[in-house]
Automatic annotation (TrEMBL):
Domain Prepilin type IV endopeptidase peptidase per the UniProt entry, residue ranges: 61-164
InterPro entries reported in the protein's UniProt record: Prepilin_IV_endopep_pep
Assigned keywords, A-Z: Membrane, Transmembrane, Transmembrane helix
Entry's Gene Ontology cellular component terms: membrane
Sequence intervals crossing the membrane: 32-48, 55-75, 81-100, 112-132, 144-169
Domain of life: Bacteria
Molecular function via GO: aspartic-type endopeptidase activity
Stated name of the protein: Peptidase A24A prepilin type IV
Amino acid sequence: MILVASLLALSALPLVCWVIDASTDARVPRWRVAASLGAAVTFLVVALPPDPVLVTLSFGLAVLGVTLAFVDIAIRRLPDVLVLTAYPPTGAILITAAVASGDPEPLLRAGFAAAVCLMAYGLAASSGALGFGDAKLAGLLGLVLGWVSWAAVLSASLLALLLAVVPAIMARIRRGRGAEFAFGPPMLGGALLALPL
């Protein structure tokens, strides 16, 4: 299974690198992207149960997450073209899975979790505490994590805050009070760690 995941990650690598290069002026070393993508996919393969819906969602989230993390670090922005275009296929996967299983409860929970996350992060963004790209990403992560459980949604949010402590301190030391930092990577890391819960 790890070999298959590694091959899938390698097959996605050229696309991920191309999107990062097209979205930023920074030249990110390929080995960093490959290592990040490989680590994310391997972690998910080892930690997740063999549920086809969860594996499909998590692989897509790993590929998108690595891409968004590098872009956000480089330009302090989560482009709509990357975040918003992930909503329709994610929704389609969840709707198909709910219809196939005959159980609408995970789909309803996912939709409600997405709405709650989008509103909560949207309020934070409207006050200037976060960017609106973070709010849009929160909705997407809420959709995926909500399919798993409410515990996964809550855990991801708490883990994101914990993972943001070090970058926030480093940004403040380097650039002073009120310094901005990329919150997308901690959000994505929190989601990655919370998926197996």
